[in-house]
Amino acid sequence: MPQRNTSENPRAVHALSIDVEDYFHVAAMAKVVKPADWGAMPSRVEANTEALLQLFERKGVKATFFVLGWVAQRYPQLIRRLADHGHEIASHGYSHQLIYNQTRDVFTEETRRSKSLLEDIVQQPITGYRAASYSITHRSLWALDVLTELGFTWDSSIFPIRHDNYGIPGSPREPYLLQAANGQTLREFPLTTAQILGISIPAAGGGYFRQFPYPVFRQLFRQASQGDTVPLMFYLHPWEIDPDQPRFDAASWFSRFRHYTNLDRCYARLERLLDDFQFDTVSNSYRQYQPADTVFYANELGKAV
């Protein structure tokens, strides 16, 4: 396990990450809006991402933006603007499909396409990746081989919880080195969980950030960071600060609950979070860790659970 930085300032600098996708891209709505219909949907991702950019400028923080290739292709000026303001650009794949529902060839081609597109826009290497809906699970560990073969050096796709769509329960909770089956390694920065009575409670952001009362989420985040000393991963989507987005009433009640709960409160909560904790890009946050002595093997993740 990586060792924490023991500098004179013990306060952690957490990773602030934004998954740049639109409200109609999310897996919760996949049954009511198909990829073939995306082009006809009123897009709101540019305005919502700009609102986040302005907030981060006002708060003086930098973030990592995991950009969906579909978005980058249509709004290259937005992605260029994020990079020009000093934010880190990483890949969120191209079409926001669950990896374990794709063939290896399709995943490889889409990931290569998105990486190349982003590199053309920002004119710098793209080395970080996050899977759609954290869909690197036991069913799709082969994706790690693809990532290393395409030149990615770090990943933030593994959620150490049980969930109906994602998660590898029992996998490490702090950043670690992960060796794929092909022998190459990635730096993995997992999504945040807090341990309560031996149970892993999600405390990474997104729907959990909106659904828990803010004081509860803040306490979970602080507990997971061992008193704000261990750097953690936080994530959000631009659509989560947009209560006026179009609504899909045909979606199931559970999908609507996951997607729409407290959209009107999310922006203000994010402001509070940025005041309560220190944040920076994923890469800068990860640098607080010393090189790991232990390498975790992909095919062994969570097997003890």
Features:
alpha/beta; 10 helices; five-stranded parallel β-sheet; disordered N terminus; TIM Barrel; 305 residues; single chain
Structural notes for this entry:
- The chain is globular and about 50 Å long.
- The protein is of the alpha/beta class.
- The strands form three sheets. Strands 1, 2, 3, 10 and 11 form a five-stranded parallel sheet that branches. A five-stranded mixed sheet has the order 4-5-7-6-12, covered by helices on one side.
- The longest helix is centred in the middle third of the chain and has 19 residues, at 104-122.
- The chain has helices at 45-59, 69-74, 76-84, 104-122, 142-149, 206-211, 214-224, 253-260, 263-276, 282-286; strands at 13-20, 64-67, 88-91, 128-129, 154-155, 176-179, 185-188, 193-196, 199-202, 233-236, 278-280, 295-297.
- The chain has a single domain, classed as TIM Barrel, CATH 3.20.20.
- The model is unreliable at 1-6 (pLDDT under 50).
- It starts with 12 loop residues before the first strand and ends in an 8-residue tail after the last strand.
- A hairpin with a 2-residue loop joins strand 8 (193-196) and strand 9 (199-202).
- Helix 4 runs parallel beside helix 5 (142-149).
Break the fold down into its secondary structure elements and pairings:
Blueprint: E1 13-20, H1 45-59, E2 64-67, H2 69-74, H3 76-84, E3 88-91, H4 104-122, E4 128-129, H5 142-149, E5 154-155, E6 176-179, E7 185-188, E8 193-196, E9 199-202, H6 206-211, H7 214-224, E10 233-236, H8 253-260, H9 263-276, E11 278-280, H10 282-286, E12 295-297
Parallel strand pairs: 1-2, 1-10, 1-11, 2-3, 4-5, 5-7, 6-12
Antiparallel strand pairs: 6-7, 8-9
